[in-house]
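thread: overnight batch results

M.L. [08:02]
morning all. the overnight job finished for the chain we discussed friday. pasting input first so we're all looking at the same thing
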Amino acid sequence: MNEYANDMSPYRAAGELAGITRLVDAFYANMDTFPEARVIRKMHPEDLSGSRKKLTYFLCGVLGGPRLYIEHYGGINLPDFHRQFPIGPGERDAWMLCMQPAIAAQPYEASFKEYLLARLWIPAERIRMVNEMGI
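M.L. [08:03]
and the structure it wrote out:
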């Protein structure tokens, strides 16, 4: 799993901007269709184009690629931003439920899929923890 912690390899393994865009599109398609995701879908605007772009740009930076989110939107503190929403274990799990099959559907190597799920669990859990505990 650590093989993806170097340089730009996670970004490249994800297919760079085009691959991350496909992942995000699959994620939001799941959010729109999975009944379990209704609770988090309601936290988003009806038009998801801005949300798609923000998540795509955010993931580019998280995976070691260009820092597009910062370039376009400035810095972000994910837990602080998400405080406006009631995020507990159910919401965190709904987000991950949408992301898991989105990752599975991508042409990534199995080891990268595992790495990415583990990598995305960290901010998802941190957001839940900060939101619930009021840290």
